């Protein structure tokens, strides 16, 4: 069969997370919630849920984390704006606020500069570059993928990724992720980031806390840092990109359950001062957003520096990271975020070739990859005949599109090599 039961997939994946007790409880909650959905409706669509199923998850769960879960699932099927809106519902009691006079006064000392140039300049001075993501925002993954070629040229050869599971030991040889490579990896842009890295001859590796006698007794943050240090010690002349979520990027102690984050432990363990970039604090929003973002009008990806060259770093974890990164508001093109279109990718409409009932998921795979197990390069949900949403395809690559409706009916479409 084309797809295994999603319930089995989640049962395999979720116990492999080894986060804080709170997050472990969250994973157990979601397994319980999935049990509440009709088994047939899950199994017919594999690892990806339709919007109506995501809505069922929210209704079936009363935990404060239900919107966070739902935002991930929306991101998996290309619902970018819905993912942002849903994530904000987790903090629905928070009233929007405007920048204070103090914040305005502070920020006026900084000017926007090109983010790529600044990152490459700083990355050339260290062996460790740490950049984070919000787990519901594929934009952050796409942006890092655009940096990989230049980072390779200045010596970066390894990419450590929080989202990977240890069990996938063949990832670099296979050269593409599969559905059991990691939970966040299910999102196509995460999978494409992995493909891009391996194609650039950058070795990808996991660094999550291990379930052994030593690491079970220490914090997740320290365990992650120890696992990264092990790789660094093995390759003492190599440079490393570390890709993490949210506050793991902070270099100093946070006043929450995390304590000293992974980046801080890694700095102490190695004696290397990493360059740390936070993409999350200044993320775009609908209702509740960072007050500093409201002061920014830039039209391109930027960081901010004062006249002495010090980077602005007060938006999220004040003075605990090196810089905050700003992405401008997303613009749509053919129903998709325009940043999904890159020199090697383009948008195409495939709905006219599909003859299934609505809604259906339209997944795109590279020929040569095992479509029974590979993470798709793109997924969209088509809800009706009026839903005009383009798919993302690679130029100069042979691909296959797979459409799946809610009844489990499947249609396979061969896509010609789009040479340009």
Describe this entry's structure for a reader.
The protein starts with 5 loop residues before the first helix and ends in a 5-residue tail after the last strand. With 420 residues, the chain is α/β, with parallel strands linked by helices. The chain has 13 helices and 16 strands. The strands form 5 sheets. The protein has a 6-stranded parallel beta sheet with strand order 4-3-5-2-6-8, sandwiched between helices. Strands 13-12-15-16 form a 4-stranded antiparallel beta sheet, with no helix packed on it. The longest helix is centred in the first third of the chain and has 16 residues, at 21-36.
* Count of individual helical segments: 13
Number of strands: 16
Shape: globular
How helix-rich are the residues, as a percent range? 25-40%
What's the helix-strand series?
Answer: HHHHHHHEHEHEHHEHEHEEEEEEEEEEE
Mean pLDDT, rounded to whole units? 88
Structural class: alpha/beta
Task: Describe the main β-sheet briefly.
Answer: 6 strands, parallel
- Stretches where pLDDT is under 50 for at least 5 consecutive residues are 1-45
Q: Specify Rg, calculated over alpha carbons.
A: 21 Å
How far apart lie the N and C ends?
A: 35 Å
Strand content: 15-25%
Widest beta sheet: strand line-up: 4-3-5-2-6-8
